[in-house]
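Supplementary Methods S3. Complex input for the PRP-bound model.
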Amino acid sequence: MTLTIALPKGRIADETLAFFKKIHGESFAFENRKLILEKAGFRFLLVRSQDVPTYVTRGAAEIGICGKDALLEQNAPVTELLDLKIGRCKAVLAMKKGERLDLSKTRVRVATKMVNITKRFFAQKAMAVEIIKLYGSIELAPLVGLADAIVDIVETGKTMEENGLEAIETIFESSARLFANRDSFIERKADILALRSAIAQAI
Ligand code: PRP
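Predicted complex, serialized as structure tokens:
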């Protein structure tokens, strides 16, 4: 029986398919604009990273791979199986160089694409926050007075550096995770665990 795996478009999908090439000794690649690839008993779906948990929790895919950040942001009820050690990055709170959170302020304005992560982070600090949801170029917001701070992903740190921002706190470290739909994990445990150990060996 085919196992359906949702992959996030981009480097993580490419690196995951490279693991399958290593395991099966043949190449795994999506054709042109096709969003489904069927091979060797697997069906791969190519989706946006933030959508991978949706495909898996709703059962359209039994298995998913995406960054820990997307799993945390969606609070996805899935069974996490393996850290693939690729797509490493961290989520940080950042401000303009030299600035620090003003604890006397009644409300901090924070721009981010990760609204839920940001809400939880400030709730733990018992700080009132006004979240400004953006879809990209988050680093711009403090430079033009749209926000006091940002919560964003840092990979190399270059974007922050070149825009005069600095991380003042790391919220969590992220990397790509292999995970399963909870019901699928019960129903197809043997197949899923076999896939997990094959990938673990390929890493
Ligand atoms: C991400 C993130 C940062 C940047 C960090 O954005 O939101 O802006 O990468 O990378 P760096 O630390 O290596 O500089 P992305 O490239 O996804 O673009 P976006 O601004 O459209 O979200």
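Residues 136-139, 152-159 surround PRP (CB under 6 Å). The CA atoms of residues 138 and 168 lie 16 Å apart.
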